[in-house]
Amino acid sequence: MEPIQLAERRTRKRQRVQTPVIDCDIHNAFPSNETLYKYLPARWRRHHETIGLRGHYGGHYPRAMKNAARHDAWPPNGLPPGSDLAFMRAQLLDAWDLEYGILNPLLGAGGQLNLEFGAALARATNEWQLAEWVEPEPRLRASIVVPYEDSALAAQEIERWGGHPGFVQVLLIARTAEPLGRRKYWPIYEAAVRHDLPIGIHFGGAGGGPITGAGFPSHYIEDHAGMPQAFQAQVISLVCEGVFERFPTLKIVLIEGGFAWLPPLAWRLDQSWRRLKEEVPYLRRAPSEYIHEHFWITTQPMEEPPKGRFFRQLLEQLNADDRLMFATDYPHWDFDAPDRAFPVELPPALKRKIMAENARALYKLPPRHL
């Protein structure tokens, strides 16, 4: 029997969706090192020219998918995918009539072993985002890139940009040096809460350890499909270390980590908490309650079970109608188009929430299409 979800998808005609669309995961890139150098102080420009970047090994994309990009995302002028605003505007913002797009540059600033250099890269990246993306294109908003392994420097960067309307969240990466619930990261959350900015945790990073609990895998596919392991570890850590008791208004966005794994993780945590809560007496509620209250999730990559009814059951179990937000992951190879992202048709009200309204509420984005 043909899987139901494939049958449903084949009957749909390709067209712009009839609801507003806010894309919560767009990746912008430097056209060249010269672009970066315009925003780096001379001391760190010399460092980049003579030493270069130095982070943990891992997280690299295979050559077969250079820059992890769609084949048609390379601009005709030869610049890297995601680096040409005019091309991105035509291929993504205009083509799909996006109301807003959230920029998440994955340029390695937070993963630098030289933390001061990482802080300089983060600041240069943020200045570049504002000058060359957000100010020229009113549909774009940016994430604040921070040197997350030094929370004092990261908090300084949040303070620098936290009041600017062009920045709508703080960007971390799923694979950090330690679980994100640890106190060393708390100054980041304190600064984010002070500016009422959500923390976005995006797919990727290396952090110095293997992605699995059983050592380093052999293949890119294992890293790509296995990234939810890192997200699960971060959710468990943030809940069990008491981060949400210390910061009751903190909002976390899980970006490009999938979401099918979240309901069973919450169930398992609740079961463990009922038996072991003496170990974590500061947790006053079941873990699932913290998860439901503090976490938002983006849609890409979409889990696609073999039958459409399984996907509808998944949404019901996720219980996140107000927390699930649409994302394309442009310009990367596993891009989700707005008209094909979901394997089944959704009720119109729910579709509107996921495609735009949940992100509009979280990021405080005023309506552009009246």
TrEMBL record:
<dbReference type="GO" id="GO:0016787">
    <property type="term" value="F:hydrolase activity"/>
</dbReference>
<dbReference type="InterPro" id="IPR032465">
    <property type="entry name" value="ACMSD"/>
</dbReference>
<dbReference type="InterPro" id="IPR006680">
    <property type="entry name" value="Amidohydro-rel"/>
</dbReference>
<keyword id="KW-0456">Lyase</keyword>
<dbReference type="GO" id="GO:0005737">
    <property type="term" value="C:cytoplasm"/>
</dbReference>
<keyword id="KW-0378">Hydrolase</keyword>
<dbReference type="Pfam" id="PF04909">
    <property type="entry name" value="Amidohydro_2"/>
</dbReference>
<dbReference type="InterPro" id="IPR032466">
    <property type="entry name" value="Metal_Hydrolase"/>
</dbReference>
<feature type="domain" description="Amidohydrolase-related">
    <location>
        <begin position="22"/>
        <end position="365"/>
    </location>
</feature>
<protein>
    <submittedName>
        <fullName>Amidohydrolase</fullName>
    </submittedName>
</protein>
<dbReference type="GO" id="GO:0016831">
    <property type="term" value="F:carboxy-lyase activity"/>
</dbReference>
<dbReference type="GO" id="GO:0019748">
    <property type="term" value="P:secondary metabolic process"/>
</dbReference>
